């Protein structure tokens, strides 16, 4: 295990005129980057402050430029560490700012959270470097987060209170701010299973372009039941088969009490399939609380995609038990579900490795993002999928989301400044 703190470094990666020069922020274990590289993108810079992630980046990509906390760098310094002459060489900026500020499981302080402020810095970087394309990946909670921010800016001052107090105003602010910076934007909430990932993981993906034509929503490659003539979703069995018989798995263990409870569950079952007395034992005080409690005590099904892999597969409310063995999913199985290469090296202890993979963008989703940007460059449309339902939720695409705010009682003079 690499123990030393990795210092910032200037990129040694050579530019390729046939590839899109890309800067990566909040890079983590490089899941999004792997997907983009598969589509021919040239990632010259990674930005990450977590020690284990920085070590992982260095072990796998020793020549890539590397910087730490995004808040500590000016646009000029970012360009320097990217090994570029000027910002005009940047084609794409990608990143998934820390999502805890918007997660439905957290306090949801939005931009008032220090992690939310990192999001604001990311917006500044996009505005200052002004790449041809940008990508923002985040959790579904961003779509319902109410804007909370310490200081008003010119964009906020144009937004009426009836919008500022509405669920989703955080995302609305992001969109209006980037549109004011000259970007044509599209977004939706995407289920990663529709892009060949053996996992039901829903994430907001926002893509902006400097071009006059809006970029298409992502083009699916798989569907749940083979609709649109596409292959069916990948499942856990497919993921495990990709491990090519690896036998030495790294995993954390359950307590003896938890193991005995799991002995009563078959593949695809969860705590609700236990006798009542064991249900109460398994959930403890949570048994008497409201909510669906769908993440508790679940043994996964080999014939279905995995639920969202989280940063720890043995937490009580987000348990991910192996379908046939009484143990949590292993680090290797996590990598397969997130579509990381088998030989991808992860730094740190077991907890660090789970966290890095659990926080990553699935490689298949990264590839879908990369393909859509390239399709836009080539003026390729995906009209066959204009009405494709990308997630379980309604009104998640750009047009429906914005229309929701337009329907609010906005004074006429403000309406013109916002939407014309």
From TrEMBL:
Pfam families assigned: DNA_methylase (PF00145)
InterPro entries reported in the protein's UniProt record: C5-Methyltransferase, C5_DNA_meth_AS, C5_MeTfrase, C5_meth_CS, SAM-dependent_MTases_sf
Catalytic residues, chain numbering: 99
PROSITE patterns registered for this protein in UniProt: C5_MTASE_1 (PS00094), C5_MTASE_2 (PS00095), SAM_MT_C5 (PS51679)
Enzyme class label: transferase
Any one biological process term the GO annotation gives: methylation
Keywords: Methyltransferase, Restriction system, S-adenosyl-L-methionine, Transferase
UniProt name for this protein: Cytosine-specific methyltransferase
Lineage start: Bacteria, Pseudomonadati, Bacteroidota, Flavobacteriia, Flavobacteriales
């Amino acid at each position: 295990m690499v123990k030393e703190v990795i210092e910032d470094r200037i990129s040694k990666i050579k530019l390729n005129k046939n590839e899109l020069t890309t800067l990566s922020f909040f890079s983590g274990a490089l899941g999004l980057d792997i997907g983009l590289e598969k589509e021919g993108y040239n990632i010259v810079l990674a930005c990450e402050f977590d020690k284990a992630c920085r070590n992982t980046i260095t072990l796998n990509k020793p020549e890539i430029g590397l910087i730490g906390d995004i808040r500590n760098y000016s646009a000029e310094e970012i360009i320097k560490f990217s090994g570029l002459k000027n910002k005009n060489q940047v084609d794409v900026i990608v990143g998934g700012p820390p999502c805890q500020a918007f997660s439905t499981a957290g306090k949801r302080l939005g931009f008032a959270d220090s992690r939310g402020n990192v999001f604001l810095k990311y917006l500044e970087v996009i505005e200052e470097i002004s790449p041809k394309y940008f990508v923002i990946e985040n959790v579904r909670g961003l779509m319902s987060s109410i804007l909370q921010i310490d200081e008003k800016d010119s964009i906020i001052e144009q937004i009426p209170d009836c919008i500022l107090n509405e669920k989703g105003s955080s995302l609305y602010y992001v969109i209006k701010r980037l549109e004011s910076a000259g970007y044509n934007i599209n977004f939706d909430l995407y289920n990663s299973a529709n892009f060949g990932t053996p996992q039901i993981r829903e994430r907001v993906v926002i893509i902006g372009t400097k071009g006059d034509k809006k970029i298409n929503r992502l083009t699916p490659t798989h569907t749940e039941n083979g609709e649109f003539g596409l292959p069916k979703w990948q499942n856990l069995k497919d993921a495990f088969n990709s491990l090519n018989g690896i036998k030495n798995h790294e995993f954390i263990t359950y307590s003896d009490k938890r193991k005995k409870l799991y002995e009563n569950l078959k593949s695809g079952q969860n705590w609700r399939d236990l006798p009542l007395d064991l249900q109460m034992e398994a959930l403890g005080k949570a048994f008497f609380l409201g909510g669906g409690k769908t993440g508790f005590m679940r043994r996964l099904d080999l014939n279905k995609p995995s639920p969202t892999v989280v940063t720890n597969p043995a937490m009580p409310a987000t348990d991910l038990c192996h379908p046939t063995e009484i143990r949590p999913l292993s680090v290797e199985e996590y990598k397969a579900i997130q579509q990381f290469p088998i030989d991808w090296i992860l730094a740190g202890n077991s907890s660090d490795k789970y966290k890095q993979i659990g926080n990553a963008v699935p490689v298949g989703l990264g590839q879908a993002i990369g393909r859509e940007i390239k399709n836009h460059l080539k003026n390729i449309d995906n009209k066959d999928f204009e009405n494709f339902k990308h997630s379980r939720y309604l009104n998640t695409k750009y047009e429906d989301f914005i229309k929701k705010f337009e329907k609010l009682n906005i004074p006429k003079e403000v309406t013109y400044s916002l939407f014309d």
